[in-house]
């Protein structure tokens, strides 16, 4: 009932997760023990949707995205990746790009596989195992 009526949609709904990544997190280059993505540079890229107003800001990196942004609140054994992870709208400008969507998807896939292999809940996984697997796959530095 509610899908994009045209191609090129930059933003979609986001799932409320265990951590809300903010622009302040990125600007201050906050480090996260459960990082599943590290970017070199970030940008905000906001289009009003009502007129031609556009805002852009380049932010020198690096920045990290924590695993907790992929785990929806109140739901066990569900993980998300791509444009629906829990981040502030200004952060979505950088995270909606193909490489970052692929990296969060890769992290979600790795976590799901490890969860199934270990027969454990996604929140109970040792994040270090996820990070090791991502490094072995050249996804996380």
Structure characterization notes:
It is a single chain. By secondary structure, the protein is α+β, with helices and mostly antiparallel strands. It has helices at 23-27, 89-95, 98-118, 127-136; strands spanning 35-47, 54-66. A hairpin with a 6-residue loop joins strand 1 and strand 2 (54-66). The relative contact order is 0.20. The mean pLDDT is 87.
Tags for this model:
alpha+beta, 30% helix, single chain, 141 residues, globular, two-stranded antiparallel ribbon
Strand order of the largest sheet: 1-2
Biggest sheet record:
2 strands, antiparallel
Strand tally is 2
Sheet-strand content, in percent, reads 15-25%
The number of domains is: 1
Instruction: Average the pLDDT over all residues and give the rounded result.
Output: 87
Tell me the helix content.
Answer: 25-40%
Would you kindly provide a brief summary of this structure?
The protein is built from 4 helices and 2 strands. By secondary structure, the chain is α+β, with helices and mostly antiparallel strands. A hairpin with a 6-residue loop joins strand 1 and strand 2.
In terms of topology, how is this protein built?
Elements: H1 23-27, E1 35-47, E2 54-66, H2 89-95, H3 98-118, H4 127-136
Antiparallel strand pairs: 1-2
